[in-house]
Design a protein that fits this description.
three-stranded antiparallel sheet; about 0% helix
Length: about 160
């Protein structure tokens, strides 16, 4: 038999009868970086000096071609120069005293119409296209037949 007088009753809170929604939790994860000022020079094409008479080789002469480089900078604290060599790195025997002159122009984030090679120009941040010309002039003797090479030093500092 069932005796109500001795029955036990349990009270269950009403809130437990319903499933409560989960609360979303978020947290930010920070990322940091430090980019150092950098300058990178990439050679796009070598130049070609053509004869301009018997005493001059010149990349700006008919048949010649300028050298081209791309400069990428991550800061605006850099200058560019394109310094002419003091001698050929390759030439036939019999080449007399030679005077070299380099000049350059720039386009892109840096705009230089024409500058002597040893004149520093401030580079902007980003990509600059550099065009370099070189001439070599001898005094006295004509340039003898043969292969010639001279290297212009492009510097970003």
């Amino acid at each position: 038999m069932f005796n109500l007088s001795k029955a036990s009753f349990i009270t269950i809170p009403v809130s437990l009868l319903f499933v409560q929604g989960a609360h979303a939790v978020t947290q930010v994860v920070p990322f940091h970086s430090a980019v150092e000022p950098t300058c990178v020079i990439t050679l796009d094409s070598s130049g070609v000096m053509a004869t301009n008479g018997l005493f001059k080789l010149d990349s700006a002469a008919a048949g010649g071609a300028p050298g081209r480089a791309t400069i990428l900078t991550t800061g605006d604290s850099f200058n560019v120069t394109a310094v002419a060599p003091s001698a050929f790195t390759q030439s036939p025997d019999g080449v007399g005293a030679t005077t070299f002159l380099a000049n350059y122009s720039a386009s892109g984030v840096t705009d230089v119409a024409s500058a002597p090679g040893d004149t520093a120009s401030r580079l902007g941040t980003g990509t600059t296209a550099l065009t370099v010309n070189l001439s070599a002039e001898t005094s006295g003797n004509a340039f003898p037949a043969g292969q010639y090479q001279a290297d212009v030093t492009v510097t970003c500092e």
